[in-house]
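Homework help board

Subject: predicted structure for assignment chain

Our instructor gave us this sequence and asked us to write out the predicted structure in token form, then describe one feature. I got the tokens but I'm not sure how to describe them. Can anyone check?
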Amino acid sequence: MVRSDARENRDRILEVARRAFEESGDTSLNQIARRANVGPGTLYRHFPTREALVLAVYRRDIELLVGSVPELLATKTPLDALRSWITELVRSMRVKHGLGDALSPGARQSVTEQSYGPVIAAITQMLEAGQRDGSIRDDTDAADVLLLTGALWRAPEGEAERSQRMLSFILDGLRTQR
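My token output:
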């Protein structure tokens, strides 16, 4: 069993690393340790390599994103939940794309394979909620929606307005025709 202080250190390192990587993909592990108020040994005990830390940040972000779906559906319409969720997914993918060089091709493939199923399940949950309330077309497929979102995170940085406009086009295509 992991001690609570070790778990807290790990969680703090992951949160600090996520913010640091958003600022710059070149942030060193020693800088992250300092920002997290832990010694380098503590960081390296949890994450022996930069790749291990990047992968852990990826996995944690996907877990948090997937875990946000029930709350989104409880507080928003299915289409608004999907808009919020995809916006966060795109933000996260932009950060991760910039860190891709820190990962070996095998690690990149592994994290993609590990995250695909949970991401598809999350999108499916929102689509099914919209299909039940009649706001989303019955022929909508989660894999198609995920593929379309790829264009959003590839839009040039600083073009949030364009990404939101493109997202509106995607969501408009999911709506039932009334």
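Reply (TA_rk): Your tokens look well-formed. For the description, you could write something like this. The longest helix spans residues 105-132. That's the kind of observation they're looking for.
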